[in-house]
């Protein structure tokens, strides 16, 4: 039997101060934010995009106008067997296998007039490296985005309703880098594992970076903590599923009222880890923002080169193209995001 989602009315919005969380009651803290910031029905009963609806043609035209130098920066990590995955929930690093090689060509592959060729194949979980979490990735008490029953959305055949293929032409917009690593830790540029980024942190970072980092409707926000750069320098360690800096559960209201289209971080799990409770809790901010807000989340983005470029130029917004692969029925997708400066 699927339980009903919380529906209690909110007289007062949940606190945006991490210190106010009841660290012994994740169920209540999650439910308060799920109810307060739920977007179900906002774009109609048949909606498949959630907050990606905030991106429109005018937004993309304005984003294209941000291009000044034409410099392009890939925000993806390498898709290879040297990645961070260690097998949690059967997530492995990409396995790349050659089907035909130059050696085969030298020895003859059966083609006429000396033609030779190479072919290859890759096997990988869709969320093992730089990726988007789709709207069918996380459920809240058995309910998926827009109030649908989880079992009616995702079956053994895949996500039948909000599959990632519906976003394939959508995710091109104004990108905004919020470099919390540099802002909060200017001496190192890296937040320590377990640091919970608050609304106050986000707003002070925007103020410090200046007008080009103002966040608004239809933007794709990128949060650099510096953890990716540290892991790449020192070794992956427990990057995949271990302690990490990240957004506090108390940022849910900010994510809602800014009307951003999507958000991505340079960490494995987007939100702070360990989570902010003294009793068992797992990815509570995911549980609020994906099935309730309809927010698309990106993880494991390489924001190091972009962070340096933005710091040097003093500009923190850019054209961002980050379409997922149109994999029918997928609940997530690898992505090679490209920032155009």
From TrEMBL:
SUPFAM superfamilies: Putative cyclase (SSF102198). GO terms for biological process: L-tryptophan catabolic process to kynurenine. Residues 1-12 have a biased composition (Polar residues). The lineage of its organism: Bacteria, Bacillati, Actinomycetota, Actinomycetes, Micrococcales. GO terms for molecular function: arylformamidase activity. Residues 1-24 are annotated as: Disordered. Coiled coil: none annotated. This is Cyclase family protein. PANTHER family: CYCLASE, PTHR34861. Gene3D superfamilies: Putative cyclase (3.50.30.50). It comes from Agromyces seonyuensis.
